[in-house]
Write a structure and sequence with these properties.
This protein is mainly β and 123 residues long. 0% of the residues lie in helices and 50% in strands. The N and C termini lie far apart (37 Å).
Length: 123
Amino acid sequence: VQLQASGGGLVQAGGSLRLSCAASGRTFSSYFMGWFRQAPGKEREFVAHIGWSGSLTNYADSVQGRFTIFRDNAKNTVYLQMNSLKPEDTAVYYCAVRRRGSAYNYTGSYDWWGQGTQVTVSS
């Protein structure tokens, strides 16, 4: 599986960005997908997760109500819509594919990772 994340950039606090993660593979519609982020000097942390059909979603408390994860299986793409951005959201954002039956908020549950896209929120 190859994942290509894009859509990062520089935005002012309160602004919005939409990240995209395009995946290879004919079985994308069966993948459980997640977004994680890593700020300088910090560990990679869970942001959001989505089930194969899109009906199941999970969020970190820090982004609940501001971020939305969704997917388009016809385009083999998962998205992260980020609204009301804060300076503390600044990080490199990664998408990843989760193994079935594993915890959605644990980095060790994910087998394939994209290269990351930088999000910088200025105050």
